[in-house]
Amino acid sequence: MIDVKHDYDYHHSVGETIYIRIDQLTIVNIVDEEGHSRSVCYNIKLYSKILYQMQQSSTPIKRSPQLTALSKEHHDGLLFVRRLRQGLINAISPDRLLSYTLWYWQHHIKPHFFQEEKILLPYMPDHPLGQQLKDEHEYIRELILSLDKEADNQDFTSLCDLIERHIRFEERQVFVYLEAKLSTEELNKVQQTLTEHPVSGEVWEDEFWNANKF
After folding, report:
1. Sheet order of strands, 2-3 included
2. Rg of the chain taking only CA atoms, in angstroms
3. pLDDT by residue (tens digit) across 44-65?
């Protein structure tokens, strides 16, 4: 660790990682094998706090019964992601992965988005979490609908990463906020409305993620 208090100017070699501390700020400079460098600056105390929160977030979340149906759909969404990732490992053709993705969008993700946008968002007017939810829905929607026969492994990996992060965001932030904000009566109303707009229970038959099926 190099401690400095003023401007700094030095040279570093390929493959080297330099740590510079300025009071409570740490700058991490990394040089890759091609000589390109990138720097990340973070606050030590804030980083420690965030790391602690991330560690705590790994513990199971006790979900209110009124939102359990949405959490179940999130579990199914994570299963969808795992299956796509396994399909990539199994070298499944992009056509098969695309067919599964578009089917899952139509029968699961699209109606799930409808539930959250029409049922949950009215309880979050002008709230940053609500805006982030809408934005991430739009990112996922655009990415899926942009997929075609030219889609490659990176496209599917990006989709998996995006969906996974979005589900974690909703479970750890949006649902926690709503459970704290809404009354029992309001949560019961959410639950009732969810039952009136269920997600499809159809099952995809091409189990490409199983090693003995491809």
Report:
1. 2-3, 17-22, 25-31, 37-43
2. 22
3. 454 444 444 444 444 556 789 9
**Residue predicted with more confidence, 8 or 188:** 188
Largest CA distance in the chain: 64
Per-residue model confidence as pLDDT tens digits over 129-153: 999 999 999 999 999 999 998 999 9
pTM: 0.71
